[in-house]
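re: ur question from yesterday

yeah so i grabbed the chain u mentioned. its 128 aa long if i counted rite. heres the sequnce exactly as i have it in my notes:
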Amino acid sequence: MPVSRARRVRIPKRARKQSRADVEKALKGPLRKQPRMPPLPGMEDLRIKVLDDVCRSIAEVREAKNALRATEGDHLIAALKAMRKHEKTTWRHAGVELVRVPGEEKLRVRTSKEPATAETAEEPAGHE
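ran it thru and got these structure tokens back, copy pasting raw so excuse formatting
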């Protein structure tokens, strides 16, 4: 007796939640913060304003850091593509050293006190 197989219904995947930076870019300006509602009468002691303000400030700083991380990631991808195109394994400029990790096609980023790569180019070996 043949066994009938139920058809699998494909459920669409959820769309990725839009980041704050993407929303601000789409709106062409920063999102406005909603003012905090004043506490209800008799409930003033439950909130400590100083701690609330500090927590709010920390949250804003973390949002900014996350947005900067996303921007840095885009810059690293562009740098890796440029280093591949120009066949470079290391590059130094503005106190930042980029090093391609062999075999993984990733960039390692370090801060450096040495001068830029173009400035450290040595004279050819016969000019002594």
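noticed a couple things. Residues 122-128 have pLDDT under 50 and may be disordered. also Residues 21-29+46-120 form one domain.
anyway ttyl
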